[in-house]
Prior knowledge:
CATH superfamily of the largest domain: Medium-chain alcohol dehydrogenases, catalytic domain
Largest sheet: 7 strands, mixed
Helix content: 25-40%
GO molecular function: oxidoreductase activity
Organism: Zasmidium cellare ATCC 36951
CATH class of the largest domain: Alpha Beta
Structural class: alpha/beta
Domain Enoyl reductase (ER): 17-346
Number of domains: 2
Distance between the termini: 13 Å
Protein name: Enoyl reductase (ER) domain-containing protein
Pfam families: ADH_N, ADH_zinc_N
Number of strands: 15
Amino acid sequence: MSTNTQIQGRIAKNDEKSNKLEVEQVDTPTPGEYEVLVKIHAVSLNFRDLMIVRGDYPFSLQLPVVPCSDGAGVVVAIGSKVTLWATGDRVITLMSQSHLYGPTTSKTAESGLGGGRDGTLRQYGTFNEQGLVRAPRNLSYAEASTLCCAGVTSWNALYGLKPLRAGQSVLVLGTSGVSLFALQFAKAAGARVFATTSSEEKAATLKKLGADHVINYARDHSWGQSVKDLTPGQQGVDNVIEVGGVRTLRESMKAVRTEGVMSCIGSVSGAINETQNVPSVLDCWLNNFVARGVAVGSRAQMEDMVTVVEARDIHPIVDRKSFSIHETKEAFEHCARGSGFGKTVITLA
């Protein structure tokens, strides 16, 4: 059963350039007739959450807002007309609450938890019954909470346009949540995976996770060409999970094969307004590849992903250091430093 009050995070406007993150005590919500009340056990952080706090998030945002899109918990109450869930069901949140199937639209993009709508960093949250997906039976709450943004984004990148096939090749950049999920999903599909990192310690971990080749981009500044040279016939990879952005796009483009896909997912390497040495749209034509922007995924895609996570017993990589909701600011700072390995998780129960 829920209590009358709860603790939640809150992001509000701080000044013209940044926002502020606070923790507050509020009343516990009551579900409407088509809503479900979820006791949230775990929340995982994404680069998106850091951008929102910093004030440089480039998409729809309604402040003040409860932060975070990723949550896993248990249903504790349901509305009178709810048919999909029962109390006791273990669930995870759908980031874009109205993106049920098919391509994303401007309308579905505005329904993002932690941006356009109140998110998951709260002990209890109400969600439309369609805005939840069954949590994988083989995962803990902490593990399951990591699937909602990074997990389904990498799934969409691998299967949303040209579905990955056994024997094909994928390049993942670094050790972000999206990159690690892409590595795990690609290996489960029988693909060959190339990975980049600047850390020998992380390189060893990437190999343990199944990466076939790991290249240190700090030592090899032409890592894109190096990856291409390692592929059969030096043809390049079928899909690049491009999370680096402005400072990595040029090398990623060198690695992708003719009619391959470069899945553009973020810009962790630099501000998105940097334009030096950034490839143009014409490069897609000149090099005959597809550059595709990927923004999370639909409920249908999440359900497909959960099926594979269970069938192949895939366990997301969670950072060894965990945080409570009272340590929210420390969790955000830890995630921003990038000193850990795997997803940063805040436990609420």
